[in-house]
Amino acid sequence: MARASSKTTVNTKKVSKELLRRIKKTLKNVYAPYSGISVSAALYCANGNIYTGCNVENSSYSLTMCAERVALFKAVSEGEKDFLLLLLHSPDIDSILPCGACLQVYSEHSPNIIIATVSTKDEFRFYPIKTLLTQPFRLKK
Ligand code: THU
């Protein structure tokens, strides 16, 4: 079990198995002709819905979008607001963790989410997002 907010715990064992199945399936959709690096993500919402994402590169390199943000933007655009766990996987970078840009974006929508990564040997690691990005940028008005 992992605590995703003051009120919510995630049955990580049960959820991770389903997320693992979904990220492996999503790997097939990666578009990474430039880096050759595949990344897949699965986002688990408090209502049980799951949104997947893969990295989508572009010949204008900086327009590339990370797998994590693809999953989050899909979910937010469908009206989701409460996120418990993000699972990440790359067959090319073992136990991959999100880049700083993705951590910033997730911190805004989900400051208590658990970030999980699964190695090429199917070993899971779990990190509260606050341990990966301790001081996210906030607009102070
Ligand atoms: N990538 C992700 O999808 N997520 C990350 O957290 C880091 C990097 C992708 C972007 C690019 O397509 C490839 O990995 C190499 O940077």
Structure description:
The chain is an alpha+beta fold and 141 residues long. It has one domain (2-132): Cytidine Deaminase, domain 2 (3-Layer(aba) Sandwich), CATH 3.40.140. Helices cover 28% and strands 23% of the residues. The chain is built from four helices and seven strands. The chain has helices at 12-26, 67-77, 100-109, 129-132, and strands at 2-3, 9-10, 40-45, 50-54, 83-89, 114-118, 124-128. β1 (2-3) and β2 form a beta hairpin. The model has no long low-confidence stretch (mean pLDDT 93).
Runs in which pLDDT lies below 50 for 5 or more consecutive residues are none
Tally of helical runs: 4
CATH domain class name? Alpha Beta
Associated small molecules: tetrahydrodeoxyuridine
Query: Helix- and strand-based class?
Result: alpha+beta
CATH architecture heading: 3-Layer(aba) Sandwich
Strand order of the largest sheet: 4-3-5-6-7
Total tally of structural domains: 1
How many beta strands in the DSSP annotation? 7
Quaternary organisation of the protein chains: single chain
Strand content: 15-25%
Order of helices and strands: EEHEEHEHEEH
What separation lies between the terminal Cα atoms? 37 Å
Q: Kindly state the percentage of residues in helix.
A: 25-40%
